[in-house]
Prior knowledge:
There is one protein chain. Helix content is 40%, strand content 14%. It is built from 10 helices and 8 strands.
Amino acid sequence: MADTVPDDAISETLPESSPETSPDAAPLPPNAADVVAGLAAVRHQIAQAAEDAERDPATVALVAVSKTIPAAGILPALAAGQRLFGENYVQESKAKWPALRERYPDVELHLVGPLQSNKAREAVELFDVLHGLDRLSLAAALAKEIARVGRAPKLLIQVNTGDEPQKGGVAPAALDTLLSACRETHGLTIHGLMCIPPADAPPSPHFALLARIAERHSLPIVSMGMSADYPAAIQMGATHVRVGTAIFGARPRKG
C-alpha cells in the first residue's frame, strides 16, 4: 500500500489473522532433530551463497521465521544457538515469546508480517525489529508508542517492488516521500528496507531493486529472501534473510 493512501482503513477493519483464533489449525511441534538439521542446512547454504558472492557470511543474518510454531518446536533452534526469530502475528507472539525469552534473554524478535496501527503499542513493547512499516498512519502510530513506551525497535520500510495491489508495502516510486515523512514529520529512525517479490516472477530483479534503493538512501539493513529464494537474495546483497519452512518444515494449510 503506497503512502499516498491517507490511512490504512481497509487493513484496520480486518481482524488480525492468527492461529490463536483457530485452535484446530495449531500444528504439532516439529521433530527436534529435523529442526536442528534444517537449521544447520540453512546456515550452510547461507555461508555458501555468501562465499559465492565474495561476501563474508557473517554479514548475512538469519531470521528463523517461527510463525505458527509452538514454543516446544522453537526450543530446538534456541538450543542450537539460533537467536534471531521472526513472527507474523502480534497476539501469537505475546502468547509464546515472553516465557521463551526468560530462558533465552538474548533473543532478537522480528515482526516480519503486516502490522495494524491498533497493534502498534504491543509491537513496540514486544519486538526488536519491525519489517512492515509501509504507510504514514502506521508511522504516526509507531512514533506515538515509541515516545510513550520509551523503547525504539529498529524500523524497516516494506517496499512493494512488484506494485502488487493485493500486497502491503509502499510503491518504489513513493518510497522517498514516505521515508522523508518518517524522518522529518515523525522523528523516526529508519534502519532499512524489506520486500517480498511477486510469487510468479523471478526474484533477483526485485532483490536488486531493493538493494539499490537501500544503497541510495544509505540504509544498512536489506531484508529479503525466504526459504525458496534466500541464496539469490544473498547474491544481491541481503543483510537479513527470513527463513521458516526450510527450518521448521511445511506449515499446515489453513482450513
